[in-house]
Automatic annotation (TrEMBL):
Helicase HerA central domain residues: 15-68
Superkingdom, taxonomy of origin: Bacteria
Species for this entry: Sphingomonas morindae
PANTHER family: HELICASE MJ1565-RELATED
Keywords per UniProt: ATP-binding, Nucleotide-binding
Gene Ontology MF term list: ATP binding
Name of this protein: ATP-binding protein
Length: 484
């Protein structure tokens, strides 16, 4: 399928368009001094391609968050979340194909580089099943891929430069199409700029930048002077997704506006000199209290942010789908719990994070409401870790053990029920490795400390014979596992 995104007009008034499918395969570099119209160009591209492809915008100034109101992007405040939370959001973005704007406004240079690197590396490292096509737009790319070391630490610079290099050099095979914009080519790392096959060159004045722009477009050095004469919003385009020969284009209008704008002239206040001096230097009268600023909108919590990402992708697919019958719903819950426990990487994560994944898995099977809050999920998770995915009915033989487990700390219930189930079925005592996995840890030392705690509480009694065989008894129930 060929999708042409209208970018404006060429020299003869004809429409100038970007072949979106070709752009996804060949990447784009935009260059122009401050005020040349780079952000306007990116906004035109984002608005035109929004219905067709997922978009991820790395926005150092917070200008592109206005896309959320018109095109449904999720705004992510990079400064409000930890690195672990940003990785979590990026994982969900690739999984659910939701367009986002990562706003880095308010962070210092090192914070912006670290947040962007964490985000981009997580997008790049997504599982193969999530390699969907996405347009990754990085504004002010020279901040994240500097040509020379600056005031930030070498570690952060290497991390950010590596993420940008991965995006531009290796991202295509993973569905990531880099679109980078920079004020000066001389400030942008050459190995990042060299991977783009499409170019939009705007107004620039320094000789070194004009020479590099001319080299990238295949122009002679004497033709580089034209970049000084370009008006705002005018660019020279070249590349397989744009034009086979250098083509001057004028970028068309956009539907949304940036939060910041270029300064405009306005008349100065007319006041006599004496009045102006009084305004500045008269302190006799107490200053009038300033009205309190309106309260800022509360930032979304991590759970709300992840929920919004899931809902944007899940809601359209769920429309008109009937809810499963109760028996089917119980089977879906059991299946999703079994998948969580079987997943080697998932089973060691905190219950709150597992609850998010559990909800996604249920919705993917058509169950919008599994009927569990976080507390109920923790209980079911304890049962699932003991192999009881269907839960426990009142008449089940292990129901008595479940009542005893409710008296123990939450993280110990799964281990207790695993031992109780082995004793009920006259099975050998589970190994330390198996119980550690139920406990949610790789450390058998932590598991042994838990067993010592349970024994101190009188919940279990461990018996070891002369041959090293171990059996565990549950005094309150009168059950004992077979020797292992």
């Amino acid at each position: 399928m060929t999708v042409a995104v209208d970018m404006g007009t060429g020299p003869d008034g004809a429409a100038a368009a970007v072949d979106l499918e070709e752009l996804l395969a060949t990447r784009l570099l935009v260059q122009g001094n401050s005020g040349s119209g780079k952000s306007h160009l990116l906004r035109r591209l984002l608005e035109g391609s929004a219905p067709w492809v997922q978009q991820v915008v790395i926005d150092p100034e917070g200008d592109f968050v206005t896309l959320a109101d018109r095109f449904g992007h999720v705004a992510v405040d990079g400064g409000a979340h930890s690195e672990a939370e940003l990785r979590r959001v990026a994982e969900r973005i690739r999984e659910h194909r939701v367009s986002v704007v990562l706003s880095l406004e308010g962070l210092d240079a090192e914070g912006q580089m670290r947040a962007a690197a964490t985000f981009l590396n997580t997008l790049f490292d997504a599982p193969r099943d999530h390699w969907f096509p996405a347009l990754v737009v990085v504004d002010e790319a020279q901040l994240f891929a500097p040509a020379v070391a600056g005031e930030v630490s070498d570690e952060v610079r290497r991390l950010s430069l590596g993420a940008m290099t991965n995006l531009m050099c290796r991202g295509r095979k993973r569905g990531l199409a880099g679109v980078i914009a920079t004020q000066r080519l001389a400030k942008l790392a050459k190995n990042v700029a060299a991977e783009a096959s499409n170019f939009l060159m705007g107004r620039t004045f320094l000789d070194i930048d004009m020479a590099r722009a001319a080299d990238l477009l295949g122009l002679e050095r004497r033709q580089a002077e034209q970049f000084r004469d370009l008006a705002r919003g005018h660019f020279v385009a070249l590349g397989p997704a744009l034009a086979r020969r250098p083509l001057p284009i004028r970028i068309g209008p956009v539907e949304t506006a940036a939060r910041s704008a270029s300064p405009k002239l306005m008349p100065l206040p007319q006041a006599p000199r004496e009045a102006a001096q009084a305004l500045l230097f008269q302190f006799d009268e107490p200053a009038e209290p300033r009205p309190a600023p309106p309260p800022a909108a509360p930032r979304p919590s991590m759970d709300e942010l992840l929920r919004s990402i899931e809902v944007r992708e899940e809601e359209p697919a769920r429309a008109g789908r009937p809810e499963p019958a109760p028996d089917q719903a119980r089977a879906i819950v059991a299946t999703c719990l079994a998948e969580l426990i079987a997943d080697e990487g998932e089973s060691f994560r905190p219950a709150a994070m597992l609850f998010q994944d559990f909800g996604v898995r249920c919705r993917m099977r058509g169950l919008a409401d599994p009927g569990l809050d976080l507390a109920g999920f923790r209980t079911r998770l304890s049962l699932a870790r003991a192999g009881l995915f269907e839960g426990i009915a009142e008449g089940d033989a292990i129901a008595e053990a479940a009542r005893e487990a409710d008296l123990l700390p939450e993280d110990a219930r799964g281990v207790f029920l695993t031992i109780a189930r082995a004793a009920l079925e006259n099975q050998p005592t589970p190994s330390d490795e198996a119980l550690a996995r139920v406990y949610g840890t790789h450390s058998t030392g932590r598991l042994r400390r838990l067993l010592a705690y349970l024994e101190g509480q009188g919940a279990i009694v461990t018996r070891t014979d002369l041959r090293g065989g171990r059996a565990i008894a549950l005094p309150a129930l009168g059950w004992t596992t077979a020797v292992a």
